[in-house]
Structures are given as C-alpha cells and as structure tokens.
Amino acid sequence: MTGAPSRSAALHLKLSFATPALNTAMANLWRPEGLTRRYGRYLRTMHEVIRASVPLMELAARRCAELGPDDPVAGPLAAYLAEHIEEERGHDDWLLADLAAAGLDPRGPLRQQPPPVVARLVGPQYYWIEHFHPVALLGYITVLESNAPAPWLAEQLAADTGLPGAAFQTVSHHAVLDTGHSAELARFIDRLPLDPAQETAIAVSALHTVNAATELFNRIALGDLNTPSRAERTPDQ
C-alpha cells in the first residue's frame, strides 16, 4: 500500500486539471502567423507581471516578520523568500532589454497603466498576503515556475520572427532557471508545517493563477488586453 502523496504532488495533481487550457493558450500565443507583433505585446505585458514579483515577495517577507516566532510557517517562509528575492531581482530588466533588442520602446511598459487582465493575475496575491497569510504566495510562485519555457523555444521564436537572439534572453534564461526553482519550491512546500487552511490557501492561489494566466495569454494572442471581462461589463456593453 502506498502512502498519501506529498503536499507538492497533491498540488500538482490539482493543477493538472487546469493546465491543459493554459498550454493551449501558450501554443496559440507562439503560433508563427503574426508572431512578431504578438511577441512585442508579450514582452510588454510580461514586464507588467514580472515587475511585481520582487515587491510581492518583499511584502510577504514583511508579513512574516509581523507574524513573528509564534507562527511556525513564518520563519522558514521568510528565509525562503529572502533567497528567492535575490534570485528574481532584475528579471523585469531582462524584458526591457528584450524590447530594445526587438526594436521596440523599452520605456513603454513604464508609462502605461497595466490592463485589468494583469491586475486579475497579480492583484489577489496582495490581498491574500495582507489579509490571510503570506504562504498563499507559494501557489502563485508554483504556477509561474512550473511552466518554464522549453529549452528550444527561444531559438524557435527567433527563427519564426526574424528578430535577433538578443530579443529572447528572458525566455532563454527562464528555460534554464525555472526548472530548478520549481523542484526546490516543491521540496520546500513539503517541509513546511502547514495547517489545512494554509495548504488550501496555496492551492486556491495556484488554481486562480492558472486560470488568470490562461486568460492573460489568450488576451495577448488576440491583442485584446483592455476589454473588460464579462463580470466587469456594464449592462450596455
């Protein structure tokens, strides 16, 4: 008789029911027809997402400090975040460099308000960190790092777009880094002394992230980032 799956294995099992839609959205995003223009949208939009990564983790680390030694999860989570913050610092700058190498304005993402579809992906993490427990952020991180680009993707994108290889450093770097980060995070989640509510919070955060990321990539592929979602529409829209 085999034992129950580890927490990380159980989490990935739950995600396996939602990830096919995300994979389909990514495949549509990377289709060769019209890819050069879509890739520019992808870089700008991902900068809006990735520039929130370090601030989110810094907020979670501050909340861990507020929770203090009476919370058995806060201490190890703060230590993990401190290390991961340094690993992720500057990744948003890679995207700006990619934009410049693609012949696009790297200042563009810094001048515009991120669209609602980006806020729907990132925003709930701020709420859960502040108003439940910072451990919820591990669900978000799990999804982002469990969907690393394939090792061959940067070269394929360069061939399909005709853009220089320097325009794909973010895709290339994450193809190498995220696999290791994902395995490390799974081991960390399995070591944490989570209570049932905290384990559920990680899963809820992860499932929301998959669904929101699927919508985001579908919108990038369609060039339709600012149209309100059905829930946000007024009766006359």
Automatic annotation (TrEMBL):
It comes from the Bacteria. Pfam families: Haem_oxygenas_2. This is Iron-containing redox enzyme family protein. It comes from Kitasatospora kazusensis. InterPro entries: Haem_Oase-like_multi-hlx.
